[in-house]
Amino acid sequence: MTLKSYIIWYQEMFSIEEGDVDCFLSYFLYKYFDENLIYNKTRYEYYMGYISGFEWYLTDNFYAYDSLTKMVKEILEVASLLESDYNNPRLDDIKKKFSIIYMCKDRYRDFINCEDVAIQKHISVVVDFYRRFSKRLTSMMENNKNATVITIMGP
Fold first, then answer.
1. H-helix or E-strand spanning residue 60
2. Are the C-beta atoms of 153 and 39 separated by less than 8 Å?
3. Which of 28, 60, 87, 147 has its CA 20 to 30 A from that of 96?
4. pTM recorded for the entire structure
5. What CA–CA distance (Å, rounded) separates 149 from 9?
6. In Å, what is the CA distance from 80 to each residue of 120, 121, 124?
7. Other C-beta atoms within 10 Å of 76: how many?
8. pLDDT digit string (tens) for the chain, length 155 residues
9. Among 120, 149, 155, which Cα is nearest to 10's?
10. How many CB atoms sit inside 10 A of residue 112's CB?
11. Number of helices followed by number of strands (H, E) in the chain
12. DSSP SS3 for 86
């Protein structure tokens, strides 16, 4: 996945491994996607026509800064909850896509033994990912204050 800030040209961008996005960020990307944002209403791909909803591959998904600010706030809250109250029911939907494959070197042994236990054992990887992602996204927004949206596209 690639995140870009827009003014008239790309000001700044960074990439995240697709599996990490799917496991750790997709919950938030779908939740905060605004299909009524004018940029999202006018997306058109020659082979697909007009696109509605979040499109995972090769299409810009636009996010307004206010939505991203809310998303970052929730991601940081989730990171804190994962550390302090891993079994909190509020985390159930977020943890559904977690996979040990994206969390540690010993993933295959941990997966075979018990993926759920292994995920909790290595949850610091997810917490670190969330905090670094939030810091990087916030920095991108601060560095591009004249931009109105950031686009997320993949792979």
1. none
2. no
3. 60
4. 0.84
5. 12
6. 14, 15, 10
7. 17
8. 555 544 444 567 778 888 888 889 999 999 999 999 988 888 877 777 777 888 877 678 999 999 999 999 999 999 999 999 999 999 999 999 888 777 766 655 555 555 677 778 889 989 999 999 999 999 999 988 888 888 888 76
9. 149
10. 10
11. 7, 6
12. coil
- Kindly state the DSSP code that residue 104 receives in the 8-state scheme: -
CA–CA gap between residue 95 and residue 109 (Å, rounded): 20
Say which amino acid occupies 111: F
d(C-alpha 4, C-alpha 155), whole Å = 13
Structure tokens at 70: 């809310």
- For 132, the token pair is 């670094």
